[in-house]
Amino acid sequence: MVNAIANLAKYFDKEMIKPLQQRFVGRKLVPKNNELSGKGLGMESVDVWTLLRMADATISLGLPTGFGDTADVTSETLNLPVLAEPFVLPRRMYESYKMAGIGIEAALAIEAAYRVQLAEEALILDGWKPDGATYTIKGLYQSAGNAEATADDFGTYGKATEKVTLAKALLEADSVYGPYNLVLNQVQHNQLLASESANGNPEWDRVMTILNDGGSGPAQIFSSPIQAVDTGMMLAVPDKTYFDLVIPQDYKNQLNEDPKLGTLSPLYGMVYESLAPRIKQVNSICKLTAI
Amino acid sequence: MKLKCLIGSLSCDGVLVEKGDVFELPDDVATRLVKDGDVEIVEEPIKKIFNEQIEELHTKKKKKY
């Protein structure tokens, strides 16, 4: 027989301790396209039109003869995937938690939402490769039109400054001007945080000045575990000219019962959304490798 | 090692190339860039001829047996 006091003395904390969660930066890097967003799950793709550059203008003393350039437009279809995390809660379990005053269904929904957001982060920063090899949707890093590959170990003072300066030159050569955001893995982010000159000048400040093009702009240095170690990317600050986020369906949590079982049914839940990053100008992103 | 640039613009150790450009880099750096997917190795003509001859020899052997 169990001693009754052992059970009587137990106090149940109604707060559910949740799994640890990482920070998200994807939506801070890419602005939302309000015109194309909010149309619902029925919107499965969006066609993108790109106007190509015209020939160089001429300078002459008289008016040019002949016809000029015509509109050269390319079109591409951007597919919009669904990101979802379904969950099921057996009825008896749900009733037990309810009796104890614990909102288990809310805790599950929050955790499912986090899992969806994690998938979203990978989609925005890197892309989506369903077979593990070929990207069906390319995110920021995979779309980059520029790459700076000089070996510059961020663990050495001055190397981050050199790398960012080289990347800035590449971006400016494509008419993409600062301020820029910088995305790093936590390893390089921490190395940059700790990097200082022999006189104690933090390298972080120097890098921020370069990212802000000499001013005090909105540039930021982000870290994400999605960004592979020893790599990074430098890209224009959120601007719809370069890239945007098409979100036909933003986060939604749905909780249902099976109508055949009514109040005895398990609770079926799903957190879902539909979105894709649209990279309009691939040259607005510069990959940084060997850092 | 002879390489072909696969990305819009690539800068490495002071070398600046554009998509489609063929250029040379030391083997260790080239291997890294190939792994990153930014370049591909351009087969040198002599190596190509050598590979073709080996392939031909293999084919002949197979036919014989």
Architecture blueprint of SSEs:
The complex is a heterodimer of chains A (291) and B (65).
Chain A: H1 4-8, H2 26-29, E1 45-51, E2 73-79, E3 82-89, H3 91-99, H4 104-125, E4 127-128, E5 137-138, H5 140-143, E6 146-148, H6 159-173, E7 180-184, H7 186-194, H8 203-211, E8 221-223, E9 232-236, E10 243-257, E11 267-279, E12 285-288
Parallel strand pairs in A: 6-12, 7-8
Antiparallel strand pairs in A: 1-2, 3-11, 4-5, 7-9, 9-12, 10-11
Helix pairs in contact in A: 6-8
Chain B: E1 2-5, E2 9-12, E3 15-18, E4 22-24, H1 27-36, E5 39-41, H2 45-64
Antiparallel strand pairs in B: 1-4, 1-5, 2-3
What features would you describe in this structure?
- The complex is a heterodimer of chains A (291) and B (65).
- Chain A has 291 residues and is α+β, with helices and mostly antiparallel strands.
- Chain A contains eight helices and twelve strands.
- Chain A has two domains: 25-51 and 72-136 and 243-279, 2-Layer Sandwich (Major capsid protein gp5 fold); 144-242 and 281-288, 2-Layer Sandwich (hypothetical protein PF0899 fold), CATH 3.30.2320.10.
- The radius of gyration of chain A is 25 Å and the shape is flat.
- The model of chain A has no long low-confidence stretch (mean pLDDT 91).
- Chain B starts with a strand and ends with a helix.
- By secondary structure, chain B is of the alpha+beta class.
- Chain B has one domain (2-64).
- Classes of the chains: A alpha+beta (291), B alpha+beta (65).
- Chain A binds chain B through residues 144-151, 166, 169-170, 173-174, 282-283, 287, 289-290, and chain B through 7-14, 29, 32-33, 36, 38.
- Strand 6 of chain A pairs parallel with strand 2 (9-12) of chain B.
